């Protein structure tokens, strides 16, 4: 009999691709991890599956329960897919200026979407999700404080990068949203080789880049530990968007602005290093940003 698999079995093991043109003439190797190849289209499929699966294993939730989560987009899509797959009702709370593709995708999976004022940004969505939980609507999984978020990357993304480079990776670059990716992957790579440099990418003041955030102290994700990041780099909205367009037009990889922001920083490193192996995370696919004019 052939061996058949469920959808969740295809979360992870995404391609690690060497860039041909953007790095230019260099002694370095610049690689991108194509997380848009996950079934739900982003890196957030990993923590979504991890949080629900592990909460269920602990007995904290069971199929039929209602889950709540504040999200800017990709985690919500990953959770909507996973909740449907595993038999949960899902309420997602997100700012009203989120892209139409994201909202429609979540609803297509059957999630209920609650939109909050855009001026309140993610803190407003977090506050509303907490209000809904206090009112007894359901249980927040809490990607911002849930250790099952970075654990998904410690057990999955990190080992994949290490194996995919035969342990030669020297620099890891990731945009910072919930910070689960940079925390989990960074911890794994450091455990294999403490010399690996972990770089977190945040937006410059005044820049609004979906998926990249510099949090106010009151809302800093509990899973974030700046002491485990070697370097913080800032990127402008203009540079992140321009790099997303270049990634599509010069490398054939359609991705969103958070991926462009991380790659912009990775290519900065490429200009100053020699004989390095730089890995950058491509967080999602660019087709969920078409309505924003990113590629116009």
Automatic annotation (TrEMBL):
Modification sites for N6-(pyridoxal phosphate)lysine: 44
Gene, per the UniProt record: cysM
Name this polypeptide is given: Cysteine synthase
Assigned EC number: 2.5.1.47
Source organism of the structure: Crenobacter intestini
Gene Ontology biological-process annotations: cysteine biosynthetic process from serine
InterPro entries: Cys_synth (IPR005856), Cys_Synth/Cystath_Beta-Synth (IPR050214), CysM (IPR005858), P-phosphate_BS (IPR001216), TrpB-like_PALP (IPR001926), TrpB-like_PALP_sf (IPR036052)
UniProt xrefs under CDD domains: CBS_like
Swiss-Prot/TrEMBL cofactor(s): pyridoxal 5'-phosphate
């Amino acid at each position: 009999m052939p061996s058949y698999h469920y959808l969740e079995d295809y979360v992870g093991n995404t391609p690690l691709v060497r860039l041909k043109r953007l790095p230019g003439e260099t002694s370095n190797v610049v690689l991108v991890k194509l997380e848009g190849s996950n079934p739900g289209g982003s890196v957030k499929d990993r923590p979504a599956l991890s949080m629900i699966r592990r909460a269920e294993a602990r007995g904290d939730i069971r199929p039929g329960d209602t889950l709540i989560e504040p999200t800017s987009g990709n985690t919500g899509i990953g959770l909507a897919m996973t909740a449907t797959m595993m038999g949960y009702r899902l309420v997602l709370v997100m700012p009203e200026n989120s892209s139409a593709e994201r909202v429609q995708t979540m609803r297509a999976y059957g999630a209920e979407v609650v939109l909050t004022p855009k001026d309140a940004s993610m803190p407003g969505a977090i506050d509303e999700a907490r209000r809904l939980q206090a009112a007894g609507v359901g249980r927040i999984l809490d990607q911002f404080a849930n250790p099952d978020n970075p654990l998904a990357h410690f057990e999955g993304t990190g080992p994949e990068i290490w194996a995919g480079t035969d342990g030669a990776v020297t620099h890891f670059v990731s945009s910072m949203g919930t910070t689960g990716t940079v925390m989990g992957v960074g911890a794994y790579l450091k455990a294999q080789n403490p010399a690996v440099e972990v770089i977190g990418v945040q937006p410059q003041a005044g820049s609004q880049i979906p998926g990249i955030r510099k949090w106010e102290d009151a809302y800093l994700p509990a899973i974030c530990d700046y002491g485990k990041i070697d370097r913080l780099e800032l990127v402008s909205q203009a540079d992140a968007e321009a790099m997303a367009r270049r990634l599509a037009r010069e490398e054939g990889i359609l991705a969103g602005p958070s991926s462009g922001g991380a790659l912009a920083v990775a290519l900065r490193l490429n200009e100053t290093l020699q004989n390095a192996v730089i890995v950058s995370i491509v967080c999602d696919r660019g087709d969920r940003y078409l309505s924003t004019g990113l590629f116009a």
